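[Automated response] Your request has been received and processed.

Submitted sequence:
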Amino acid sequence: MNLAPELVHFILTVTFGFLIGLEIRSYREHFHPDRPKDFFGTARTYTFIAILGYIFYRLDPERLILYTTLLVGLTLLYAIFYYRKVQENRHSILLYLVMLVVYSFGPLMERFPIWMATLLFVLTVFVLNAKPLIERFSSDFNTYEFETLGKMVLLSAVILPILPDRNVIPYIPLSPFKIWLAVVVISGISYGGYLAQKYFFPNRGYFLTGIIGGTYSSTATTVVLARKAQAIGGNPLIDASIIAATSMMYLRLIVVALIFNFSVGMQLLVPFTVLALLGFLFAAFYIRRGRRAEHRPDFVDRNPLELRTAFLFALLFVLMMVITEYVTRHYGSGGLKALSFLVGFTDIDPFVLSILTGKYALTLHEIVAAIIIAAGSNNLLKAVYALWFGGKVTWRSALWICVLGIVTIGYGWVV
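Generated structure:
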């Protein structure tokens, strides 16, 4: 049986209004059981608001005089109700906003696909139920990071579209648009790990710090964990965490490669997955021998979306493209492998991006080998950091990271 679209829209509008009314009642009983009079209406009230919003819109869909008149009337009623609340030092307008959402279901159903109103309904229910989570998140979140995120959104949404998508910089085989797009993508991946580490796992242990930190910066995570091991006199669990951070680096590079050069990513999928699993096996051995930490580990509090960090990354990205172009043109595959080994002792992301996105006279196997060698030598750098900042207590993790590095370099050299 085929129902008329208007009937389907009306049924959904009434259903959404009624369910949100029930959600308001649940919200009142759960969060404000001692102040029932602070709430504007019940489930029936919100159901009628949804019905009237649909009917008044359908009666005058062009000029919207009836629809607007009812909206003004509801607003005046709530204003009287709100005036009384202000006299009692209560200032929330949440109920009025929810009422506006319910009142908008009718026009949304008629003018837009059903998924739009459904999404709005789901978001409303979610926000009403997420009050404790939102309050905790807003109190813990550093306001400076909102400012930083806003700047990056501005640069991405405003500056990125106006950048030329053609090669205009001498000796750079990539357009300014694609250069900045690569910076935004890498910063976004790092920012996801940063937020997960700092806000979504507040009770994380050492091992979880290693796992999440590896998606953000395995080198910085190694330094932090090594310092902690030195401070507390060593713990095999920290060794496991340091190794896990390096294992996550392999998985992170797979994701980056698949985004920017799918063919290279598929070539790296098997060897890097095997190396990551090998690292996790080493880590699992020390997890069994580790002891539970009495304190939370420190956090690498460096926002990857800071403008200075983003511009520095873009500069290094361009520099690596120039160097790689020069080396490949004059020294061929052997020179590229040597460059990959040396670059591993710095931040390898700009080099990896330059290899993945640049237009070089390189074969697929040469690109894959360069990335593998750079990842391996970066492991050697982290092994040095583990010993430098952790001393004798982190020799086990330094040893296994070094083994992973040597195996990775060896495979990259012969691939």
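Summary generated for your ticket: Residues 142-414 form one domain. The first helix runs from residue 5 to 31.
If you did not submit this request, please reply to this message.
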